[in-house]
Amino acid sequence: LRDRLSFMRFVGLALHEAVPDAKTIWLYREQLTRASALQRVFERFDAALRERGYLAMGGQIVDATVIEARRPRLTQDEKQAVREGKVPSHWSKARTRQVDREGRWAIKRDRKPSLPPGETQTRNATPIAIPVFGYNRAAARIDHVGIDRTHGFIRRFVVTHAARHDGSQLGTVLDPQNTASDVWADTAYRSRANLSTLLRRGLKPRFQRAKPRGRSMPPHMARGNATRARVRSRVEHVFAAEKHGMGLVVRTIGLVRATAKITLANLAYNMRRFVWIQGRPIPV
């Protein structure tokens, strides 16, 4: 708060007043978490956006990103016990409190880092698999989000552990108040169950198509994917803003506190987005 006068004005602090320390802010967030108030705060701001005319329009874009958490240092036996929902018998009370037993490991697909400047690559980059721990924003946590295409606000989200499949949360993040029926998502969401869900709700799937195994991508499928990707890429801007602009990581223990932190990040993103849209010049 001391870093910017605008921060102090936002929370109603004068220059001569004492600024709350990190512990005070942590306790305030903890009280909001225990009261299950953060989701209601997020929904109230979304309602305020709608009242200002920012309705969910143009269809919705759904995706998920891994929010990395602190990696536990466990033996194989301890990992097995945690997966089974048990607490290893030799753990002390302090050890039990310090280990996140709700986060899960997941594999993040990537490629080998680029070569140093001046060196040339003689063949294509090799795909590699990187294990991560945390939460799917949805082991890390995963943040599963749905944004509206027109304004780019996060309308719905859910947080899970990182091993939860992206496509399993589609029904949770769909916004029934969106004025259009199109739903954009990547290939992870293409399943019979999800297509059935969209059909029942009267929505149109605009999902990416996977390359046929052992064959090249047909030209018409590649063109369709490119068209959908131009729309779907907007949700990646949300994740980039939170991870790089806000430095979002999870350093708390447990799904409840991770959800609280990610909820606040999603709320802060919507606030920043609203201020940016309000400040844009009106087209002539």
Protein architecture, described:
The structure is a single chain. By secondary structure, this protein is α+β, with helices and mostly antiparallel strands. It has a single domain (20-279), classed as Nucleotidyltransferase, domain 5. It contains 10 helices and 7 strands. Strands 1, 2, 3, 4, 5, 6 and 7 form a 7-stranded mixed β-sheet that branches. The relative contact order is 0.16. Residues 126-140 have low confidence and may be disordered.
Tally of contiguous helical segments: 10
Based on CA inertia axes, which overall geometry fits? globular
The CATH topology is what? Answer: Nucleotidyltransferase, domain 5
Helical/strand content category: alpha+beta
The description of the largest β-sheet is:
7 strands, mixed
* CATH homology superfamily name: Ribonuclease H-like superfamily/Ribonuclease H
Whole-number tally of structural domains: 1
What would a concise description of this structure say?
With 284 residues, the chain is an alpha+beta fold. The protein is built from ten helices and seven strands.
What's the helix and strand layout?
Elements: H1 5-10, H2 22-34, H3 38-51, E1 60-68, H4 76-83, H5 93-98, E2 104-111, E3 127-136, E4 140-148, E5 154-161, H6 170-173, E6 182-185, H7 192-200, E7 204-207, H8 219-232, H9 234-245, H10 255-279
Parallel strand pairs: 1-6, 6-7
Antiparallel strand pairs: 1-3, 1-4, 2-3, 3-5, 4-5
Helix pairs in contact: 2-10, 3-10
